[in-house]
Amino acid sequence: MAYQFADPFDTYGNNYTLLAGYPWDALSSAGVATVINTDFRFTPPGTLPGGCCGITIGNYLRKNLSGSPATVLILVGIKLLTLPSSSVGDIVMLWDTGTQQVCLAVTPNGALQFYRGNVANAIGAITPNGTIQANVWYGLAIAVTVNGSTGSVQLFINGSQVAAINSTGLNTQATGNAQATQVSIGNSNNTVGTIRYDDFFCMDTTGAFLNALPAYDPRIFTKMPSAPGNYTNWTPVGLGANWQNASQQPPSASDYNGNNVGGTKDSYVTQSAGLASAPFAVIVRASLERDDGGAHTPSLLIRSGGVDGVSSALPALGSSYVFYDYVPQNDPNTVLPWTGPNADAAQPGVVEG
Questions:
Q1: Which of 217, 218, 189, 186 is nearest to 92 (CA)?
Q2: Exposed/middle/buried for 343, CB within 10 Å: 0-12, 13-18, 19+?
């Protein structure tokens, strides 16, 4: 599997309140997470959108993982508006079907430490006091292996290749299963004020690629449609052009592109990010639902240099919107890893199934 989920928090628009199921599977309660376009880790290049998600005290967003991996890798930007006042607070958590296995927590003194369970048992090393300060963005790279005796935890900060925490031979298993089925961001034990998150990326170690932490601090650039692509075969509803409907932030239930003819394609030119270096990953994301009684199993595509790369057929669409991702390892034109310019020029799209 390797790639699990990503959320740059760039595609929703300012002051958008995230909803359970779209795309995070669960919220601790309604209205706890708001997207803010006036704060982000890095200023996005050109006209690309930027933003972060603010999660209120004692609340969290949770995402189901595929394949119940034993090792989970997480990249995330984080900013605490205030440090805990009196006791440690969890800020990134791994779960086994609703029970916390492991969490990364911050102390009132700004140190970071992993805990088994919900800040129940400190495990591994702790960073120095002052590692985290209020109102400062940090890029965290986290690796956790869940096991009752050979578990491990790693933490890298701001792209440093010297681990802030690197502890092995641990009991990182709080349930009867050496696995993680969910990941969450926020604070579940009601000790940390509003936390802001940006550039969230989650993977595991089981796939052929995206199965290891990068040797740098990555960020996610969100490239929205800006002009028609090579294919303009779906029917626009709402706005006049296909690319305009596909660029709505957040996706609009009244502005969309529709189709029911198998094999029909739509693609879009996107905003330029000015990429020069090879990207860590290229992700095509679409928001899709069916609005008729037919079975629809579309695919996502990426067009590069006149060659289409097409994903496997998606699961049959339901009657509510779901985000779907396609993560091609190689450029379909060169059949080699992506270069920055080729990734920047590629056209995302969709194929009716």
A1: 186
A2: buried
pLDDT averaged over the chain?
A: 96
Name the CATH topology of 3-204. Jelly Rolls (2.60.120)
User: What pLDDT does residue 66 have?
Assistant: 96
Let me know: does 349 contact 231? Beta carbons within 8 Å. yes
pTM, full prediction:
0.96
Rounded CA-CA distance 297/316 in Å is: 5
List, for residues 131-175, the tens digit of each pLDDT value: 999 999 999 999 999 999 999 999 999 999 999 999 999 999 999
Task: State the maximum Cα–Cα separation within the chain, in Å, rounded to a whole number.
Answer: 60
Distance of alpha carbon 105 from alpha carbon 14, whole angstroms: 28
| Distance of alpha carbon 159 from alpha carbon 123, whole angstroms | 23
Residue 236 near residue 179 (C-beta atoms within 8 A):
no
pLDDT value at 294 more than 90:
no
Cα separation, 99 vs 182, whole angstroms: 9
Residue where the block lists tokens 């996107």: 270
Q: Is 65 exposed, middle or buried (0-12, 13-18, 19+ CB in 10 A)?
A: buried
Q: How far apart are CA 39 and CA 164, in angstroms?
A: 26
**For position 71, what pLDDT does the model report?**
98
pLDDT at 128 (0 to 100): 98
Among 311, 316, 270, which residue's Cα sits nearest to residue 292? 316
> Where exactly are the structural domains of the chain?
3-204, 225-351
Position 49: which residue type? P
